[in-house]
Amino acid sequence: MNDTAKRFNPAGLDFSTYKPKHFLWSVEGKVATITLNRPERKNPLTLESYAELRDLFRNLQYADGIKNIVVTGAGGNFCSGGDVHEIIGPLVEMQRKDDMAGLLAFTRMTGQLVKEMRACPQPIVAAIDGICAGAGAIIAMASDLRVGTARSKVGFLFVRVGLAGADMGACAILPRIIGHGRASELLYTGRIMDGAEAERWGFYNKLSEPETVLADAQALAKQLSDGPTFANAMTKKCLHQEWNMGVDEAIEAEAQAQAICMQTKDYERAYEAFVAKQKPVFQGN
């Protein structure tokens, strides 16, 4: 971490030595991998892991050496959603006590995780095998790219427990990935979507074999991290913020974004490499 990054890093995190409490974290080059690591339960989330993931994604804006993130799960599954005993049970107790404030605090906290994933500058690649359900499906949805397996099973299961499909931004984000009608079906029925259908519908960017899905996702992340990473971060920001813009406003926003990117050394490097008939070596500045 350089001196500037340290100065503006409010949490004081050193991402090269970061040791989270509720999942695994590893860094190779410019790519970091988050591994949900409760394989005996198919990697469910707890209140604590939700909060730690939220805080990590919030602080990734200060991780100047990390340009892409991979999210995966251990033991042949991605994530089975919220832990029945550690989350759903306590939420039912809140309901019995008519604790609306507590319930709203929880739902806002989980939604904040998605906000932080969309706001962090690093493109996120999800490597999905096995069960990808409930909040796990939301984490996959909130990622920028998804590599899955044919045997994987994706389910937005909220309706199965008497809740709305409108959870953690699903009604806003999922239709933009797979279309309104398909998203409506999944959110109303809570049915499972297998890997082949997920790829056909555009939820997955590609299918891989179970033994290579993580490596393929990491290779994709590395490919992006070897590109113009400042420009990639700008693309991610534009993709997100332009959801709420008209075409004229979006064109103006992209004009400003592109003018900023034209001031980078990477833009100059690409030109010089083209003139020299060489492949550009981008450095993210």
What features would you describe in this structure?
The protein has twelve helices and nine strands. Helix content is 48%, strand content 14%. α2 (47-59) links the parallel β2 (31-36) and β3. The protein folds into two domains: 3-225, Alpha-Beta Complex (2-enoyl-CoA Hydratase, Chain A, domain 1); 229-275, Lyase 2-enoyl-coa Hydratase, Chain  A, domain 2. The two termini are 15 Å apart. The protein has a six-stranded mixed β-sheet with strand order 1-2-3-4-6-9, sandwiched between helices. The protein has a three-stranded mixed β-sheet with strand order 5-7-8. With 285 residues, it is an alpha/beta fold. The chain is globular. It has helices at 3-7, 47-59, 84-96, 100-119, 135-142, 170-178, 180-189, 195-200, 213-225, 229-241, 247-261, 265-275, and strands at 24-28, 31-36, 68-73, 124-128, 131-133, 145-149, 153-155, 192-194, 206-208.
